[in-house]
């Protein structure tokens, strides 16, 4: 075989290998890329995040567009009691009339800590428009009121922190892993929820659904 012919064949094979590697890499990126979702309560419909305004990644209508049509299928958020840092009892029903962002977290949970700066930022921005309820999973061993309070103070967060000291709220909301977030409208209905850490865009999308 001539030297020139061998060179051409070698270059062609190399090109195929590089091209195949690029395709495989793109496929791998699609498999491992995190995809955040809001699950519409009562319907099981999901909204993939991030998405273009008014559409999800499939180009379909988002929950914000379909919320009115699913109102009859929504269910009331179970009422519960927690305590604040001063030991006062606070109920979810006390918040009726205001949209609520309900988040379950703990200071030992890395994903919980990763999303808290966004929660704190949005909470301070919205002020009294939306009630944030950051419910700490206070088991009394791995997590205590003192540990959680110190963490929040050290970070300089202004988020309203509450404590599930009996772990009853976690049971009511079937919290098997954290963080977990629910979006509740002003009438006390569950509108959407998501499992795992979320970014600022997803948080704002959920809030838009309950305002």
SSE inventory with pairings:
Elements: H1 3-32, E1 36-40, E2 46-49, H2 63-66, E3 75-76, E4 81-83, E5 89-91, E6 100-105, H3 110-126, E7 131-136, H4 145-155, E8 161-163, H5 168-172, E9 180-184, E10 189-195, H6 200-210
Parallel strand pairs: 6-7, 7-8
Antiparallel strand pairs: 1-2, 1-10, 3-10, 4-5, 6-9, 9-10
Give the amount of beta strand, in percent: 15-25%
What is the terminal separation in angstroms?
Answer: 74 Å
Tally of strands: 10
Number of domains: 2
Number of helices: 6
Radius of gyration: 23 Å
What is the CATH superfamily of the largest domain?
Answer: Glutaredoxin
- Give the CATH class of the largest domain: Alpha Beta
What is the averaged pLDDT score?
A: 78
Biggest sheet overview? 8 strands, mixed
- What letter string, H or E per element, gives the SSE order? HEEHEEEEHEHEHEEH
At the fold tier of CATH, the topology name of the largest domain is Glutaredoxin
What's the CATH architecture of the largest domain? Answer: 3-Layer(aba) Sandwich
Q: Ranges with pLDDT <50 over ≥5 residues?
A: 5-34, 49-71
| Helix percent band | 25-40%
- From the spread of the alpha carbons, the general shape counts as globular
Query: From the helix content, strand content and strand pairing, which structural class follows?
Result: alpha+beta
